[in-house]
Task: structure prediction
Amino acid sequence: MQILLILFGVLPGLLLGVLLVALLVPLRLGGRAVFQEHLVDASADASWGFGLLRVDVGPDDGVVLRLLRRPVYRYPGRRRRSRQLEGRLEDVPAERQVRHRGAPGRRPGPGLVWRVARRVLRSLRLRAWVNGRLGARDPADTAKVFGLLVASRALLPGLDTTGIRIEWMEPALDLDGRVQARVWPAAIVWIALTEYGRSRWERETG
Result:
């Protein structure tokens, strides 16, 4: 009986401690993209608990969930899935293959999820770096691109484009960009709760 009382007294505290740690430890996000004339490649990652949990996303490897740097779950990438789908469709009659393409449907309008996502994006502490070469065929267009880069430095303090070299005499597209962000799960929960309460209030009063 005493053991049960101890368990019932300790377990709530442990659960509360785990919940607080999960909410107060920041989630770190990262991404990288390469833009070249005939190549576009991008990847992203998210980690929590100083690398305790990590998710890597890429076009080739797909989604990889890692625990203590060891992969525990994999979802095949785009190219691997396309090869698997092609192999399956070869054995399906042509009149039934149309079903795999899907039918155009009505997309849901902006609602609660969209408002939560927008507020979460605003709360992110973003830092981005872009390096490489950039230029257009027409020097006038290159000047416009240069003006946009200068304006982006003023509008987005976390964006560093000083590593981009402008090519005025020849077209060029060779960019390598990286982005890092940090978000607290507690902030996401707070935003979701406030937006849910707002939507309920608008529904009842409207």
The chain is about 45% helix and 35% strand.
